[in-house]
Each structure stands twice: as C-alpha cells, then as structure tokens.
Amino acid sequence: MPTPVITGKGVFTPEDVITNDELVASFNAYATAFNEAHAAEIAAGEVAGKPMSSAAFITQASGIERRHVMEKSGVLDPTRMAPRLPGRADEEPSLMAEIALKAARPALEEAGLAPENLGAILCAASNMERPYPAMAVEIQALLGAPGFAFDMNVACSSATFAIQVAADMIRAGSITSALIVSPEITSGHLEWRDRDCHFIFGDVCTALVIEADAERGFAIRSTKAATQFSNNIRNNNGFLRRAHDQMDDRRDMQFMQNGRKVFKEVLPLVSAHIEAHLAEDGTTPDQLRRLWLHQANKSMNDYIGRKVLGREPEAGEQPNILQDYANTSSAGSIIAFAQHSDDIAPGERGLICSFGAGYSVGSVVVERI
Ligand code: CO8
C-alpha cells in the first residue's frame, strides 16, 4: 500500500493587519453611537445597551494580539463593520480561488510537482464563496490541473479531514497526489458588531501537497476523524433563507457561538481523541517532537498540551500562531505546521490536530522522512 507523504506547504497571509487596539477603538465607536441613538429605548429597558470591548480582555481571554484580513478599512468603519470586497463578474477568478492559488503555488514549488501531475484538488474550508460550481473545480482550471476536484466543509476541521480523505485515496491507489487548499475568508462571516466574538477570527489561506511514496517530507502514519453534534457553534445562513417567513438579515446568519460551553466541552473531547489516536498509531507521547494544534485559544492549547504530554510543554514543542493570525478556522493548525516544522529531524514524529464546529476533531500523526 502506498504511503502518503506531505511534500509541500504554502501559506498566503493577507497584507492588512488589525491590532486589538484598532479593533476595540472601532467597536467602541460603533457601540457609543448605537447607545446614543437608542438612549431612550435603552433607558426604558426596551433595547439592550452595547457594552464596550477591551483589548486587555481579548489578550487575556484568548491570547490573540492581531489578525490579518483581506480588507481592513470596511471592518474598522464603525458605520459598516464588514470588509469591502467588491463583487466580481463570473468571468473573473473568484476571491477564494485567487488566494488559494497564492498558497498553492509555493506548496507545489516546495514539492517540485507541476500542476499537470496532480491527481485531485480538495478545497477544504468553513465557508464557500458560492454553493456551485465547486471552488475546487475553478482552482483546478486556474492551475491547469487534470483529474478531479471537490469542496468539503467540516468547519475548523476541514483541513485535517481533507488530509484523511487525500491520504486514504492515495493508500487505495485511486490517486498518486493531491493538493489541499484552505482559503478562510472568515472576515466575511464574522459579526464584527458583537463584542463576544468580534476579536476571534482572521483571514488566511493554506495549502498542502500530498504524494504517494515520496522520499522527502512528512509521512502520514495515520489519521483519525470524529464528530459529535452540537449547536454551540452555528451559522443559520443557507439556501432555504428566502423560503422562511422572516427574510431579513438576522444575527444568526453570521457566526454564533457559546464560547464558554465550547471551551468546556471540546477540551475533554480533544484530549481523549488524541490519546486514543496515539494508542492506535503505536506512538507514545514522549515520541512526539511537536504538537501543531488548532489555533482558537491559548489556554485551550496549553491545557491540551499538558494533558497529551503528561507534563508542561517545553518552549517550541507546541507553537502558537494565534497571537498573530487569531483563529483562522481550518487553516490554523496548518499554518503552525507550515511555519514550525523545518527543524524536525528524520525519524521524528509530530501531531497535527484541529477541532471546532460540529463538534469535529481531526488528527494526523506524521513522521519526518
Ligand atoms: N471585551 C470585554 N469584555 C468582554 C468581551 C470583550 N470583547 N467579550 C466578552 N466579554 C465579557 C463577557 O460579556 C463576560 O462578561 P460577564 O462575566 O459580565 O457576563 C466576560 O467578559 C467573560 O466572557 P466569556 O465567559 O465569554 O469569556 P471567556 O473567558 O470564555 O473567553 C472566548 C471567551 C475567548 C471566546 C473563549 O470562551 C473561547 O475561546 N472559547 C472557545 C471558542 C472556540 O474554540 N470556538 C471554536 C469556534 S471556531 C469554529 O469552530 C469554526 C467555525 C467556522 C468559522 C467561522 C468564521 C467566522
């Protein structure tokens, strides 16, 4: 059976950066204007006043210090609070396809693989720019790749689940190589007017190339995927929207979560998942040189690192990138892997793990060749 090997990694990072201070200044200007405009209703108890946000809270509660976005002026405009991303004609490349290419090209270059030799392309992300035609098929056309391509969405676990799918196809012999791209334009579906979540997300695109029996890279020893239904992270936008009686823009058409419940429920789920996966793989925690964890919250990662390793993780053993990128959904653990794996020596092992809406947990044990 062929061994799937990660041979190329790519990260496209948008130029625009929003610091916590900039974000909070814009939110507080919006909240102040809202409170002034609704002063009478707020005083009568008919409308809830908007409490102010705080940069100190954001850093302490999440570890996030800044985030990259595709377009910051619209997000920071207190009268708009959404990115300015003009619509495109059908003849033009879609925005997600465009950034997918910017991550895919360096990944293919590192792999030394021409797009004409790709077997499959998976676009794995938490939201697609449109339902169809699949983003992945457009990316395939722009790259000039043969074979087949499809989209998949398992929210934050999209990339690790895609690694499992690609690795299984390579082991089964139906393809000999795959490109996985995760273009996450979270700024489009985050409610920037909600203090509880306005700081959480950022935009990015990651790419991985996986090939059969390559002689360099990271061999995929095993993968494990699991899901368990929960309403605690939810977005109710969808194609039945215009069929519902209430057709206006509701809050639940954007990202919604009960963050505290997610925090409490997902931690034991993930720790148990990783422990079971390592046991099935025959890898002991002390054989893991590095953990590339999902990037949602620093305290969550500290907890998972301690639980999996059975001790305090040493510096560099469990790198975080969330301070610079915030939560980039499915791309987070892949950014950590792409930016913190070059020093892993042949024979050393590591674990990529993502978790989030669904709930979903995906993990991958890799070994440097
Ligand atoms: N500034 C000041 N105070 C605030 C702010 C703020 N910005 N926000 C909340 N507060 C207040 C709250 O109102 C609350 O006040 P009170 O005690 O008076 O009620 C207090 O601070 C504490 O609030 P929380 O209990 O909510 O604070 P936490 O310590 O729990 O921290 C976190 C909040 C950081 C959100 C934390 O709960 C967390 O990280 N949870 C895990 C979240 C997570 O991992 N979610 C995964 C989501 S990602 C995913 O699955 C992908 C979805 C698809 C992508 C969508 C893209 C948009």
Automatic annotation (TrEMBL):
GO molecular function: 3-oxoacyl-[acyl-carrier-protein] synthase activity
GO biological process: fatty acid biosynthetic process; secondary metabolite biosynthetic process
Keywords: Acyltransferase, Transferase
Beta-ketoacyl-[acyl-carrier-protein] synthase III C-terminal domain mapped to chain residues: 278-367
Domain of life: Bacteria
Residue stretches making up the Beta-ketoacyl-[acyl-carrier-protein] synthase III N-terminal domain: 150-226
SUPFAM superfamilies linked to this entry: Thiolase-like
Keyword match Acyltransferase: yes
Coiled-coil zones: none
Transmembrane helix listed as a keyword: no
Matching NCBIfam families: PRK07515.1 (NF005703)
Protein name: Beta-ketoacyl-ACP synthase III
Annotated organism of origin: Pseudoroseicyclus tamaricis
